[in-house]
Amino acid sequence: MHANESSYAFPEGFLWGGAVAANQVEGAYQEGGKGLSTQDVTPQGIVGPVTEAPTPKNMKLIAIDFYHRYPEDIRLLAEMGFKVFRTSIAWSRIFPKGDEAEPNEAGLQFYDDLFDECLKYGIQPMVTLSHYETPLHLSRTYDGWVNRRMIGFYTRYAETVFTRYREKVKYWLTFNEINSILEAPFMSGGISTPKDRLSRQDLYQAIHHELVASARAVQLCHQIIPDAKIGCMVLSLPAYPITPAPDDVIAAMEYEHKNQFFADVHLRGRYPGYMQRFFRENGIRIAMEPDDEETLRHTVDFLSFSYYMSICQAADPSQHRKGEGNIFGGVANPYLEASEWGWQIDPQGLRYALNQFYDRYQKPLFIVENGLGAADKLIVQDGMPTVEDDYRIEYMNDHLIQVWEAIQDGVEVLGYTAWGCIDCVSFSTAQLKKRYGFIYVDRHDDGSGTLERYRKKSFHWYREVIGTNGASLKRRP
């Protein structure tokens, strides 16, 4: 089939669905024996300060009340035809402080009930073990992943949930966007030491502990649930050189190495040479236990990733206008438009990322986050509240066509879960104003709203995409 033909049918068995994170939808932050997490003290998201205790200004404390409303929400996802639903387990629901010997039964039962609800509709749960949600006690007592004891706490938690849900969950992810620890050490790694005082030595030691813990989780999953698949999850941020100048090309390569490092260890089972050089040149000495290298050889079954945008890199970034929405660095691409939050829109970057990953690893890939955050406006049409979100439909249509292109290139793509399939609290800004969903939730940044759910125009569009296995996608001029 040529790229100009009209049908974009995806492979049989392609897993269509959506994704959320526990801390961005559940609310009920102290119900059912749940302990506090790092999310409960970050009322402004990644961009704001950490508070001593939860504050009412933190939208995540109630979020969209998924904890109480999940049966209604799962029913709506089933109406769209979801094959898979990616969510996370709140670690502090299972081990409220993180270092207890015994888990919290009420927390375990909540996820039993949630997964049963998914399976009732034929929706496979895909579960992230750690999605920016370290128990706050582990962060404040141990400085998060800087401390090697975190490996044991995480391993106990992983073994607990693998054993409990071995009949219900067949797709697992170890850490969400594990490479984001480079820019967000508190949110991503539970590291209490302020970023401006965190040494490179401690940061990369923390990363090593996470990588060893991830590999141990892979080993445990393969032992406890032999028919499950477990993957890693990275933030994909393709970097183009701002010019063809060799210095700019090398700058882009070196930036990509910073992120590829995490996937390389997960999929190749060892530290790559370029990181050994980085450690030598920066005086970093990773403290390893005797069996760490052997543990790292337990590699994942597939690579999953988020993709929202690409960036550019330059040898001299000060000469170029920075992209305002690029939390994770980079300079603006003059050929791309941006969302209202300043994230540059590059559908072809998704095809490029898929090909890069597959060329590098020849392992199955899963796109577990992609979508457009926008300030949706609720209107009444034919007597029903809805949102005319054609901008989201265009964004997702164009990205999914590039996924199809990558599949034609020979890339093995297992599935696609649209981020924030139901409106949730933004990770980056902790706002509800920044909406991603196919389902509108009537809650606002001032705390007002009924929490009622309404189908957006994109809800019906995505249902058709799933129902036709992608054949309804349309190439736009």
Automatic annotation (TrEMBL):
It comes from Paenibacillus spiritus. PROSITE patterns: GLYCOSYL_HYDROL_F1_1, GLYCOSYL_HYDROL_F1_2. GO terms for cellular component: cytosol. It comes from the Bacteria. This is Amygdalase. GO terms for molecular function: beta-glucosidase activity. It holds the Pfam family Glyco_hydro_1. Belongs to the glycosyl hydrolase 1 family. Keywords: Glycosidase, Hydrolase. The active site is at residue 369. Coiled coil: none annotated. One of its GO terms (biological process) is carbohydrate catabolic process. The keyword Hydrolase applies. SUPFAM superfamilies: (Trans)glycosidases.
